[in-house]
Amino acid sequence: DVKVTQSSRYLVKRTGEKVFLECVQDMDHENMFWYRQDPGLGLRLIYFSYDVKMKEKGDIPEGYSVSREKKERFSLILESASTNQTSMYLCASSLLDQTNTGELFFGEGSRLTVL
Amino acid sequence: GQNIDQPTEMTATEGAIVQINCTYQTSGFNGLFWYQQHAGEAPTFLSYNVLDGLEEKGRFSSFLSRSKGYSYLLLKELQMKDSASYLCAVRGAGGSYIPTFGRGTSLIVHP
């Protein structure tokens, strides 16, 4: 069974703290994504990666960075958390292949609260 | 850029049929997805359309018209467990496999 695992379901951090959100997939997928989901705004893409050490900015990368040192792991980093980064963060992966649908497999999400 | 529009909220009765629409304007097109997301859970894949027409999968069907930039998700024989958010996502062209999501439609099924 396919699995995308996010390290923390719930986090509470203080303004200015550095925050790491970890995501691991066991499907050998090339593509990995970080989205944030906010009420009324839907899922918005922060960063994605299509290979180890490769990363591309999504629609809202400001205030975030990412790291992909191994194929199965994609980390989202908030260098200095701010209250407007309070959100649900969803990691996803997909297969880079024109022969399939390229559907996304999502993790359970990490709900971050910044005080 | 891509613009995806779907209703914010819909309500329906158990046992009925409901149609959730999605319209999109994209620079190129390489497939449309529907995902289901129950409260507090991860989105899960429901359907994928890349050619015009209807794709049926049990109680759920998805339709696509590329010329009209339009899709719908049809849910038949509604059950209480179908209460969830339904997310429409469109993948653009150019070799990118990155889908852009609409804001989602919250479906409430009542007895």
Task: Walk me through the structure.
The complex is a heterodimer of chains A (115) and B (111). Chain A has strands at 4-6, 10-13, 19-25, 31-38, 42-49, 56-57, 65-70, 73-78, 87-94, 105-106, 110-114. Chain A is mainly beta. Chain A is globular and about 45 Å long. The mean pLDDT of chain A is 93. Chain B has strands at 2-5, 9-13, 18-26, 32-37, 44-49, 53-57, 60-65, 70-75, 84-91, 99-101, 105-110. In chain B, the strands form 2 sheets. In chain B, strands 2, 4, 5, 9, 10 and 11 form a 6-stranded mixed beta sheet that branches. The model of chain B has no long low-confidence stretch (mean pLDDT 93). The interface between A and B is medium-sized, with 25 and 21 residues.
Question: Which key phrases capture this entry?
Answer:
heterodimer; A: 115 residues; 7-stranded mixed β-sheet; B: 111 residues; 5-stranded antiparallel β-sheet; globular
Would you summarize the structure shown here?
The complex is a heterodimer of chains A (115) and B (111). Chain A has strands at 4-6, 10-13, 19-25, 31-38, 42-49, 56-57, 65-70, 73-78, 87-94, 105-106, 110-114.
Question: What is the C-alpha radius of gyration of chain A, as a whole number of Å?
Answer: 14 Å
Gyration radius of chain B (Cα, Å) is 14 Å
Report the helical percentage of chain B: under 10%
Helix-strand string of chain B: EEEEEEEEEEE
How many β-strand stretches of chain B? 11
Tell me the total number of β-strands of chain A.
11
- Strand coverage percent of chain A: over 45%
Secondary-structure content class of chain B: mainly beta
